[in-house]
Amino acid sequence: MSDEEWERFLRESVAGAAGAPVEPSARARAVERRSRERSGPPEGWRTYAPARPRRRTGWYVIGLMAAVALLGVGLFPQQVVGWFADSGGGQDGAPLAAESQSPREAPGAEPALRPTLAEPFRGSPAARWADGATGITVPPAQATGWMDAAQVERALRQSRDFLVAAGLDSRVLRGERPTQAIALLNPHQKDVQEYLRTALSSTAPTAENDPLLLFSRFRPQQARLVGDVVKTRGRLTYREGQRGAVEVTADVTFVYPVTPAGDGGSDAEVIRTIVRRKVVMSWDDPAKVRTEPGTMSLVSYALDMTNGGCSASTGYFVPPFGTAKEQSADKAHQVDPYDRSKPIDAGSGTTATGSDCATATRS
User: Fold this and answer.
1) DSSP string, 261-276
2) What element of type H or E holds 31?
3) Single pTM value for the model
4) Which of 34, 85, 245, 358 is the most interior residue, by most CB within 10 Å?
5) pLDDT digits (tens, 9 = 90+) for 144-162
6) Could you tell me the residue ranges of all domains in the chain?
7) CB atoms within 10 A of CB 21
8) What tens digit of pLDDT does each residue of 72-96 get?
9) Cα separation values, 78 from 75, 234, 286, Å
């Protein structure tokens, strides 16, 4: 090594060579470690760090529940609406869903408005009921007793046809003979045939032979129907009866708005005659009971009516025109004719409830 190289080696050993690694101090190592642990730029000693926003999981849960509810309404609209309809709830003026089960309570109170010729159901729960036969719910048919599903469906349809012919036929409402309804009755059922002969031919029927037990009739010289709409609400149920028969039970309320026959003025009085019937029909096995195809036997039938007359039976409803202000103060004999949560006690055979002339709390 020359003298110049040895001298340069001694100088670099004392001053250090350019680019040579330097051992960091302890403080430098600590600062570097904290820098690696932090994410983002270092905070100043007087800087403000806002709190992290909380996740609003509650809104996601509420949204999910709302979506499920909407899906349920879309798939089963009648059942969902029926939950509210049966308890008397629902939006004012909105039609009620079909009655799919026995209601738990009476309908809610309506505004105290009297019916008119233009609005015969004003101020009544019936304003939200269905018209005519559409208000009578028919359940799905299943094989029962001696019938397969198709036969049960036909029996249910004919059972409703009987109710329509007996309580909605305009000719029967005017007092004519209920021919179509009678055609559905077993001609070999002697007690019913005797009842029909007596009830429809007598000028003074008894309570047991009153045609109103099965048929709705007004004397045309006294009352006429307002418009052509009768409101109904009710349903059919069925089960296996005696000797394998299919026993169909109908529980239906009819609301008839009527006005005096000779009063054609715009301010004529309108009264609603409210009729609830419970009819039990037996579609018998022809191999076990003498019957005819397409006919059924009557097991029992019961009537509950309001504003249909309280005097002796005449065979016709007698609306109490001109007595709107004559209301009984005896609350022990008041009834709500729209309360379908209470059963009609048909007892055994034929009965006629409502003959005690109880005062209606509303009409």
Assistant:
1) TT--STT---EEEEEE
2) helix 26-37
3) 0.72
4) 245
5) 999 999 999 999 999 999 9
6) 110-323+331-360
7) 5
8) 655 554 444 444 444 444 445 688 8
9) 9, 15, 37
